[in-house]
Amino acid sequence: MTNFKLESPSPVNNSLLLHKSNHCRDWDVFYEKKLEIKSKSLFSSISNSKILSYECVDNSKVVLIDSDPYIGHLKFLGCQKNFIYIINSISKLHYSNNNFNLCTENGSSSIIPSEGIFSEMSKLRRKSVSIILNTSNYIEDNDNTEQILWSVSKDLSYGYLIDKLMNDLYITSSYKEMEKVKNAIGTTIALSIDNKMSDLIKRNGLFDQILEIIDNKYKDNDFSLKDIAYKVGFSIKTIQNILLKYNVKFYSYLQSKRCIEFEYLISINKNYNLEYLAVSAGFKNLSAAKREFNKKHQCTIKNYLVDSK
């Protein structure tokens, strides 16, 4: 049974904390072998600092911290692919590393990747709630989470709702309610991604552009998603997301276009070499054409030609 855990810092010589950073204390180590947070406090007393942590059924983590002012470092150990880190702070809290500089305060939230080492600084007493969210139940593998990472809540489509839900965690006391809030936050983030993608498609007419490029280039044997990405100026992952919003899989659509062309070519060129016609239709070779042809017609090319006479 998962439960709340109260973590207490180890006793420490405060004079050393005030003097040299290399004498800092390791005080927040959570979750043992999985996603760990290690925070080093450089100048805080050990009295009256509280850390409350909760592990959800899907291995998401909720952490409430109420501590003295400090400078520290946040590090995730054993980081997994589908996790993001959401931090909400009532006091002013800075997060920074070589790539970004974020500040969260007054109950606002920030979303950062659960990888790397981040410097933290709180000049006032820190009161914050964090979620290390397992996104696998909310976000498809193909969804582009880069659209929400390194963002503050005001930049998100549903940022106001994320803030409201994160603030609810400060007063949530039961396991059941904690799970409900966590699930609502995951769903809200998924909606934010979907909304941003829909705006992107609508604004740029990208779906129609992509289909037009495929329709014009499918006969090219080496044609790939890279060619589309280069043409429209978006990443391969974004192209895949756009197509899947309309239930179109790139490779399936591409091969179906080639199969239609191959059917046409063999119907008007009965004396030509089939390998030549398959390559002319865009397939790499005759074997690839046969696989696609059989998948569509449930028969061999030879039988298809006999039946079509």
From TrEMBL:
Gene Ontology MF term list: DNA-binding transcription factor activity; sequence-specific DNA binding
Taxonomic source organism: Photobacterium kishitanii
InterPro entries: HTH_AraC (IPR018060)
Protein name listed in UniProt: HTH araC/xylS-type domain-containing protein
Membrane-crossing segments per the record: none
Domain of life: Bacteria
Lineage: Bacteria, Pseudomonadati, Pseudomonadota, Gammaproteobacteria, Vibrionales
Domain HTH araC/xylS-type, chain residue ranges per copy: 208-307
